[in-house]
Amino acid sequence: MNSLKTITINISIPLFISLVFSLMIFYDEKIPKVIFSLVPYFFYAISILVLWVSWHFNRNRFIFIILPLVLIHIGFEYFSAAKAGSLFLYTSILYPLHLIIFLVLRERGLFSIWGIFKIVFFIAEIAVVLYLIYFPSEMINNYLNIKMFAFSSYPLKDMAVAVGIFVLFILISLVMFNRYLIYNSTFLVIALTFYAGFYFLKLPHANELSLLTIGVIVFGLLIRESYRLAFYDELTALPGRRALVEDMAKLGMKYSLGMIDIDFFKKFNDTYGHDTGDEVLKMVASKLAQVSGGGKAYRYGGEEFVLLFPSKGAEDAYLHTDILRDTIAKSPFSVRNKKSFKNIYINISAGVVQNTSKDKDPFAVMKRADNALYKAKEAGRNKVIKA
To answer: Are strands 304-310 and 255-262 parallel, antiparallel or unpaired?
Structure first.
């Protein structure tokens, strides 16, 4: 289960963006009218920007999130009142489900098999909605307009509310338990913003502002995703070597550093396979990420990790590193095969040092920590050596 702190950090940015635009809706009399007249142009501009960046970075999930909103906005602008009402009904039900589908589908090249499947699926969605708008089915409309709740959610139909409850339940569950928190939390806010825009449709500029809000949130997620790809390790979700170099450049006059290595990891890989080895790396990384004492964990490469303790001495760094070593040593790891499974225990060795006036830069400190790590291995492993 994800910690409340991590959830709060990840959801705060998109939620803040949504709340800012919500205030614009309810305090529209205090905002110059010219701003609202430009909202559609801002929406188209941010949509084009999202499409271009998504294409450039091969993040086609965002293409399929923003394009439906552009088509919805165009439909509301140019359809007759009756057809716009039908579009409202169908999209209030389909788009939240569309969000879930494209959140779950993995990123693939747009012209790969999965990419073509996404394109075909998206075109089929558009075709179905247009067909129902131009050739309405009384049976389908009666089904979609069925009364399910005692309360009124006008202008949203009860079917849209039921779908919304289901979608929000799925998204909240993913936020709480799934490791891809940056996506899940953002998609949760997107769904809430979408429903808010439709629910307050009769308020001036509510729908247009909600679509613009989603566009800004998606663009913000693209920026955050680009940062994550550049600075975070994909397998362990820890900051990577580039992030370590950046953070070492910000260190003050006093700090400590720990080099960590998983004991006998090559032998473990040869015995159980690389897939199981990857699971071990993720398990160890999840424990190291919980380091206390102001420390921060990084994946340096392979089975090596680094703990950085800004403004801390070697004693503090040693104490918190040894707590992690003991925690990992006592945490069983289940190895499964076709017939059975067994619990094994993983050990780590570590070398901890504090910077001195003789160190030219943090890389010299890292070298000394690496030497201390080798001493820990020579001393029998599953140890922390303080140099």
So the answer is: antiparallel
Cβ partners under 8 Å of residue 289, min gap 6: 237, 238, 297
Q: Which residues are catalytic?
A: 303
CA distance 325 to 307: 12
Question: What DSSP line would sit under 154-195, residue for residue?
Answer: TTS-HHHHHHHHHHHHHHHHHHHH-S-HHHHHHHHHHHHHHH
Residue 93 contacts residue 144 (beta carbons within 8 Å): yes
Asked, for residue 377, whether it belongs to a domain, the answer is yes
The alpha carbon of 68 is separated from its chain's Cα centroid by a whole number of angstroms, namely 21
Evaluate if residue 120 carries a pLDDT over 80: yes
- CATH number for the domain including 314? 3.30.70.270
Count CB neighbours of 290 within 10 A.
12
Q: How many CB atoms lie within 10 A of CB 206?
A: 21
Give me the domain span that covers residue 205: 4-231
CA-nearest of 274, 264, 283 to 349 is 264
Residue 236 inside a domain? The answer is no
Domains in the chain, number: 2
Instruction: Out of 179, 212, 231, pick the residue that ends a domain.
Output: 231
Treating both helix axes as pointing N-terminal to C-terminal, what angle do 33-56 and 60-78 enclose, rounded to 10 degrees? 150
Question: Taking 80 as the threshold, does the pLDDT of residue 138 lie above it?
Answer: yes
- pTM, entire model: 0.77
Q: 348-366, pLDDT tens digit by residue?
A: 999 999 998 888 888 889 9
- The domain boundary, picked from 199, 231, 263, lies at 231
Concatenate the DSSP letters of all residues of 35-73 into one string: HHHHHHHHHHHHHHHHHHHHHHTT-HHHHHHHHHHHHHH
